[in-house]
Amino acid sequence: MLNSMNRILTSRRFRFFRLRNSSLPLAVVLLFAMALVIASLAYSGSNIRWLLLLSACLFISILFLLWRQAAVIWRDLTHYRLLQQLSRMQVMGHYVSWRFMAPASELSEQCQTVLAGRGYRVRSVQQGSQYYIAAIKGRLNRVGLWLSHIAVLLILAGALLDSDLGLHLKLASGELQAETEQLPLNDMPSQSRIPARSALAFSGFEDVQAGQIIDEVRLSTPAGFLTRHLPYPVSVQQVELDTDQLLLDNNFISRVAILDAKRDAPLQVVLGSNRPFRYKGYIYYQQAVQDAGSELTLAMWALQHASVVPLKFRTRLGAERTLQTRGGRINIQFEKLTPRNVQPLQAEQDSEVVFRNIGPSLLYKVTESVSRAREFINYLLPIKQGGRYFYISGVRDEADPDFQFIHIPVDAKASLQSFLRLHAAMYDSRKVSRAIDKVLKDADNTGNRAARSTLTELLGLFMEGGFAAIDRNIASRVSEGDYQQSRQLSHKLIRSLLYGLYRDTQNRAAGTGSGEGGLLFFEDTIPALSRMAEIGMPFYIQLQDMQFKPAVRIMVSQRPGEMLFMVGWMLLLAGLILVFYNWYRRLWLLFEENGNETQVSMAGMGGRQVGLFNREFNALFTRLQKGMQG
After folding, report:
1. What's 498's DSSP letter?
2. How far is CA 451 from CA 427, 447, 487, 490, 495, in A?
3. pTM for the whole structure
4. Looking at residue 386, what is its pLDDT?
5. Of 239, 258, 325, 508, which has the fewest beta carbons less than 10 angstroms from its beta carbon?
6. Distance of CA 232 to the CA centre of its chain
């Protein structure tokens, strides 16, 4: 029956089933590429029907190919075709013939010795006065073809076993139901739990603090969340990190214990970056360190008050605090402390953009009314820009994805005190009055009530909305032709008034001074003050101290197809090496005695390596002639 099927499939009508040897390496590469596509679909968990269909087609096609080529490959490995007819030898691509004055038996033995010395496997037979020799070299090339196809099957099978395909099939059948909300592990429903001894591949996680034990992990799927019970619970004993480098470095190790009831004592394990641990088919590793409610000591300066004394308080991440301000009650929620922020920065010497860690940042949300909530982010270390240092703070509405940033300059002591004193001076009526007197005196307008009223009004507009508020007020009061002149004059007056306040604050406290550095500092404060007023920033918060409470994210996975996958890769590598570097060739020699002479005919085939075999064939012909003559 198999022979009949073989004749049908190799007939002209079914010639598309033929796979010539020259196309086999390409077929291996294409099949491997298709296996990778299927594996990627399996890991993504999407298009399950297409995944199963493609997998089935690939399995069937490779199995059919192996069955179809089995007889051909076996024949190439074991059949030497000893009785090769002279007429067929003469039409081969490589053929030579010559005569010797020696017996055929003697020449046959000499040729066998030469061919065996060249690595050929030789068979010979005698029929009457004719001697036949058949030789094969590179037989493992045919084995490589088989290994390559079997390897693709193993790789695909391993990838499917290691993927989430089993979970998605159980979800599709209703055997498991994913929970759409990220509930605590103890509150997960029973239909969302996978038993401990399940053979399904999984990769789960859970955030664990030092001293806690977990016996379940959470699995995230496109449909929701599942939990997987662990046969060997994990106890996190300690999370080690350098507290001095905490805000600048995220390298850490986790000391954990794996609790196996069959062991006399817990198995002590150290998990680190790229240091997973394998135990009885499970892989344990750490992914990241999370914040588990670190305690923060903060200093908060009210930006609508004449005082520069901050409010200091302790809180923790995730907590809320309610404050009473001039504008009403506001609620502050401290959401996130990011230890590292890698941002693109302009290099000092050229225009090249470099990525640098600019230190930690604190994100908090301020709710000022039912209809308005804003997010603020403060970078907690000064950042160098243009040769000078600034604290950077940003604000955005909840619906806005982008922050609007303010660059607050630091003084000669790398402090915010000079800036905060200048900001508070705008709310101190006595300091403002002295600054106005100084401006009027310099302009020879002392006693001019209209000028004093104008300066007071301009300062009020500036405090409400910065330069933008002044520009809007001017646009509403003067003609378009007088706008630029009025705008420039108003900005100049505000700068003069602010400089008077700046000099007043610096004379009463050790600060930046009025030299060149002090003037640069003052010029940097003007846009920061304007931007703060325009945004309506209610206060500024700075981190004073913290007690970091880490929670390490422990990952546990099970990969039942990993061994198949690795064996498949090794077989594929071995098969491709055999296919491409161990080429297959065959030789036939016919010795016919005619009196005292022997007619020697030699023919051969070298497969795809025509050029290489041509050189080897000619070298063999020369060597055989010399051997027979010797």
Report:
1. H
2. 20, 9, 16, 12, 15
3. 0.59
4. 80
5. 508
6. 29
